[in-house]
Prior knowledge:
The radius of gyration is 25 Å and the shape is elongated. By secondary structure, it is α/β, with parallel strands linked by helices. It is built from 15 helices and 16 strands. Helices cover about 40% and strands about 15% of the residues.
Amino acid sequence: MALELQFYNSLSRKKEVFKPIIPGEAKVYSCGPTVYSRQHIGNLRAAIFADILKRTLRYAGYAVTDVVNITDVGHLVSDETDEGEDKMEKAVRLEGGDPYTIARKYEELYRGDLARLNIIPPKFMPRATEHIGEQIKFIEVLHEQGYTYRTADGLYFDTSRFHDYGMLSGQKQKEKLPGARVSVNKEKRNPADFALWKFLTGENKEHIMRWNSPWGVGFPGWHIECSAMSYKYLGSMFDIHTGGIDHIPVHHENEIAQNACSEFIQKVSFWMHNNHLLLNEGKISKSIGNVIDLDEIAERGLAPLSFRYLILTAHYRSSLNFTWNAQVAASHALMRIYNSIIDIRGGSDADIPDEAYRQKFTECIFDDLDTAGALAVMWDLAKEGSLPPGVKRATFFDFDRILGLDFRGVLAKRAAMLLPEEVKTLLEKRAFYRANKDFKKADEIRAKIAAKGYEVRDTDHGQEAMQVSS
Length: 470
Ligand code: AMP
Ligand code: ZN
């Protein structure tokens, strides 16, 4: 496949051919969840986007190292002005208990959501609270080089010292803000300046998560965690940094400033941002009661993977309005595609994907992750009547390496449902013997199953039995 991968780079505001820093490798950092509450379906859109990106890089042959951070301290209530109470501490006020327990609870729920959406677990999922030393070290470097100043409530980064501040959002330091960001901290030298380290003052006086630092007891600002952890896990130069578009004007602008000014001189080749999922044409927000999570989708009898399907119907750079009608339509579409895969009869596992279809599919997905186009190719394949059955099935499986809609799993489940009772019973016995490492007995049972016309295979998700095609 000679096609080149192209991604839209938020930094240059155009599509660029992806060229890795190290040949054959791709290093990706994605801003992950703030674990003060359940991640909503908008947040999950960001996670699905990062997963599609990773699967595409793998499909293109890259060895991917990916990091998704867990923000369990320092993300303040006002994203825009970077002020207010820490979201974790607010959750303590509302839920009771302690911030660590709350953080771990929502992190677990998030991991569960990732699994239900067939998102491949990231290689690293570092927690901000477990990297305080790294963050302090990063701040120390900025401090020694004169990029910081102290106010009553923290140690701040002086954005006027970084000439390119605003390069990502395209706003100049002077024109950015005063109107847009009304800061309550009158000691800030520039409206865009942000805290690297917060002291225990004001709303954060009672902050439970607290650490010693050269500047006093307190906790790190939100932006420094991503700079410190991406440096630790991916090094001083890496390929792609992702996040939602809400991160462009503040969080990522601040990361870029910190990185450029530190001696770590971190450089990111591609900044990629997913647009928002909207609900009722508006912002998904807990505070205005406009929020849905994955449980609610499941409670309505819709498979979580049908939500993944819905997200794939839109380009990641377009906004998408969530409606229950659209979600139900996505569920129907997914069931239809499952049925057309189930309906493919015959062929063998040795069959390989069709190259012409692969080409069409790749043209879409390599063109800045055009998942909607890729789904259209998948539907063409479903209607295709001239391919040998095994080739058609293999092509679906090949597409699913990126789509992640679990085509193999569906076939396995379906095949299991269709098995005669006696074969099911034999399979259970075989699983028992295998679990007890009695492979001799297990093989005897395999032979019994074979005598009934079924072949057993051991896969990642357990045994599978298929009727041997005659
Ligand atoms: P948070 O938990 O707020 O730190 O956000 C986690 C990720 O979800 C970040 O990359 C955000 O940019 C992204 N995000 C937040 N809201 C939405 C939304 N409505 N649609 C898509 N992505 C979102
Ligand atoms: Zn981040």
